[in-house]
Predict the 3D structure of the following.
Amino acid sequence: MAQVVTPPNVGHADPAIAVARTTEDVLVGERIVRHTYASRVMHWLVGGSFILSLLTGLPIWTPIFGWMAYLFGGLQVCRWLHPFLGVVFSAGLLWMAASWWSQMSMTAKDREWLSPGYFAKYLRFEATDPDTGKYNGGQKALFWFALLGGLALFLSGLVLWFPSDLSQPLREIAWVLHDAAFIAFFLMIIGHVYLAIVEPGTFESMIDGTVSKAWARLHHPRWYRDVTGDQRK
Amino acid sequence: MPIQGLEILQSSASLRGQETGIRQLPKVSKYIDTTTCIGCKACEVACKEWNDLKTIPTVQTGSYQTLPTLNAEFWNLIRFNEQEFEGGLAWLMRKDQCMHCADPGCLKACPAPGAIVQYANGIVDVNPENCIGCGLCETGCPFDVPRFHAGTGKMAKCTLCVDRVESGLEPACVKSCPTGCLHFGTKEDMVTLGVARVKQLQATGYANAALYDPPGVGGTGVVTVLAHGDKPELYGLPRDPHIPVAVTVSKRILKPLGLLAIGATIVGLFGHFMKVGPKRPHAAPPAGGV
């Protein structure tokens, strides 16, 4: 079961990072490869287009964030740029759906993870489920809600992009849906970013693709056992 | 650019304190008597001439109506509604244009600061300099008036000839009307004129005659005399227009709630970080668990 790769001879490059270009879920020396280069590019395509969509969308949402529009050259620029960024974001999410769909399927264990009792323990850092795999229930839930939210944002965004020839009820529904979906999505992403800050080592896994053994053991014990072959719980 | 010499009462997507000046101007209004309109379309032509609107192909709608609906290059449209009544046919002509609501849905819906302004005299105008052409004003309008102009990328609609009005002239449509069914003056005077005309109509067999000045949008800067005032729908006018519910949900509910939720989440997570701190692996895993 263990996926141990002998460190390749890659000159001065980090052997684990070199392996992470194409392979994930393997142990290279003291590092475990968590995300391939393609996965990380995909993640940042979604993340980057989300941030730019946010910066161009917030000033349209409320004048409190009007100053953000000047980063792009004004509100008129935001009005035409925002929909194109939304298309990139949606395309990124589609790619994400295609590549992560199967590994994100919810198990009974994941649903238990999402129960208020366990989630509260998780937030106090007291959760010690030894069977958490590569992705925990919360990460899987984020994936499905992101796809759902992305779909709502894309469809309502299309209506808002070309409103002129569409019916009044459709325009009204799209407006409210776009607002509600964006608020929910943004709240979710604030939590997502926070967890990358509060759990050191997590952010790096999305940059160079690797994590330490201790990190894997702490956050994803079952994944750690599967990858390293170290069966101690 | 807002018209010089006219103070601003309300401005779209603007925080408090947008009112300028101290002059209290009387509210102005257009008066339309549909019972004396002969459908000559002089007002349509005058509107296009004064506002330099491009000639666009007309559309055969099966009646004398020039176009099926308002257009970014056509801000003033006479609608020809044929209605059968007991004892014959009625030809209900109605002048369709911006109603210059006292409580304008377009202005409430607009996300661009200062792109829609309401002047102290009540005229609601699009300021192209600030307009981003998003079309939300069209969604916010209970009368379906603003139109997107593909050439300029801005919204366009009747200005009540604000450039004429601020110089003491009447709007071009009123100037051109040959029957006197159009008048322009203070809102108070136009309502007085309308009420008198409604009484006259009621005395001459139109028991349901009424003045259309819907309170749901705070009254309009266009008051319309209708012979069949009990059925404004026959003229293509909404019975009880209000600002669409999406404007209220978005601006009054989702915006404050969303801002609160976003702020509270960020503050809450900062508190969490201080209280629980970063989650790091222990130097040596404690026996019996991770």
Summary: Chain A has a mean pLDDT of 94. Residues 3 and 26 of chain A are 5 Å apart (CA to CA).
